[in-house]
Fold:
Amino acid sequence: MARRAEELADLERQVTGCRRCPRLVAWREEVARTRRAAYAEQEYWGRPLPGFGDPDARILIVGLAPAAHGGNRTGRIFTGDRSGDWLFAALWRAGLANQPQSISREDGLTLRGCWISAVVRCAPPGNRPLPDERDNCLPYLERELELLPSARVLVCLGGFAWDGALRALAGHTGSTVRPRPRFGHGALVTVDGWQLLGCYHPSQQNTFTGRLTEPMMDDVLAAAVTRAGLR
Structure:
């Protein structure tokens, strides 16, 4: 356990120090310099984001990338933006978080039985990473799969995360599924002992329009909890 904690800490250092993608480095740092007016007095993180959560997690939740004024500001994935508000409230209802809000890295939030990560670790312009930027980041997700030995359920928030998780699993296990499973809300596929669950991303575009509702997300997380053997 102590060695794994060291390895997770080493992975965090690798992620936060990464400068592989010039376009993403320039964008995240420009956003951190100029800031949004509402956060003008805050110091932005402006670096890549590591995953975080319970090292004994049985569920790994995978998102797309940090938000420019969310995780890129606060230094924690899905923290400080509307998508995160929606996600952490759902995790709290599912018994996977000790509180329904994630505001900052010092807010006392802890996760139980789950780990949260992303396919791309820097905030991308227009929230659209390029294929080579995705591929540069995938080894970090593959390494998390190695360092979370209890995890066997992947909840993929959106089609980009679904595709990225399948690619990371292929790199980690050597197992490639053909034909490639299609993403959908509630979609389920098993890859070499891993179970992937699809969930619409809790973006404002989805939650404001009703494409994703609280009961819909609760159902996916309940399925993840059951399949992970957490209750």
In short: The radius of gyration is 16 Å. Residues 36 and 151 are 37 Å apart (CA to CA). The first strand starts at residue 52 and ends at 53. The mean pLDDT is 96.
